[in-house]
Amino acid sequence: MKFTNKKAIFFDLDGTLINSALDLAKAVNFMLQTLKYDTFEEDTIHRWVGNGALTLVKRALSGDTIINKHLDEDEVTHALEVFLDFYGKNICVATKPYPNVLETLQNLKVKNYTLAIITNKPFDFVAPILETLGLDNLFEVILGGDSLAKKKPDPMPLLHVCEQLNVNVEACVMVGDSKNDILAANACGMQSVGVTYGYNYGESIGVYNPTHIVNDFGELNNVL
């Protein structure tokens, strides 16, 4: 398919533009070791990524995607502090862009699309990663998971960026790897692209009915 009459493209970050799974897994396991919990394989931790740092920490303490046991609030607070401190100091050690990301983003800029990042990652972590990877200066707006009262899958962040950019929902496309991205887009009537290579909790992204699906980020050049 080919999207038409689009002005702005919104991107998720982790699992869509960048593969940050190894650095996140190291931070999670450092936190677990510090609190005397068992650690987990990287692939297991991958399935917990996507709903922000607090949920990731709670899932790690629970040992499951579903937080199905009582967690002590003070312990969760301490665990989150340990995780954020370690991750902040090791934020871009193994993290790297997925194939064709930089070239495709640059090409979209040449085509005069306005680009924005809408991530559930804490805002303060985003700019250092973009700068380290040479992805800065490409985005007009960057929204973190703690930037607003609600985050994806709520549509609030998408609608907020539309307002900031003075564009309507119909003129935008949301690109992401997770159900949170697609559900947020569907909730406000925005078309979307699901990428298949990210961290969607072990599920197929197609389950959530994105407008289009790509297996490689570079395929965006053919649909936008």
TrEMBL record:
Pfam families: HAD_2 (PF13419). GO terms for biological process: carbohydrate metabolic process; DNA repair; glycolate biosynthetic process. Signal peptide: none annotated. It is an enzyme of class 3 (hydrolase). Pathway: Organic acid metabolism; glycolate biosynthesis; glycolate from 2-phosphoglycolate: step 1/1. One of its GO terms (cellular component) is cytosol. Its EC number is 3.1.3.18. Keywords: Carbohydrate metabolism, Hydrolase, Magnesium, Metal-binding. Mg(2+) binds at D12, D14, D177. The keyword NAD does not apply. It catalyses: 2-phosphoglycolate + H2O = glycolate + phosphate. The active site is at D12 (nucleophile). One of its GO terms (molecular function) is phosphoglycolate phosphatase activity. The keyword tRNA-binding does not apply. CDD domains: HAD_PGPase (cd16417). Its cofactor is Mg(2+). PANTHER family: PHOSPHOGLYCOLATE PHOSPHATASE. Belongs to the HAD-like hydrolase superfamily. CbbY/CbbZ/Gph/YieH family. Specifically catalyzes the dephosphorylation of 2-phosphoglycolate. This is Phosphoglycolate phosphatase. It comes from uncultured Sulfurovum sp.
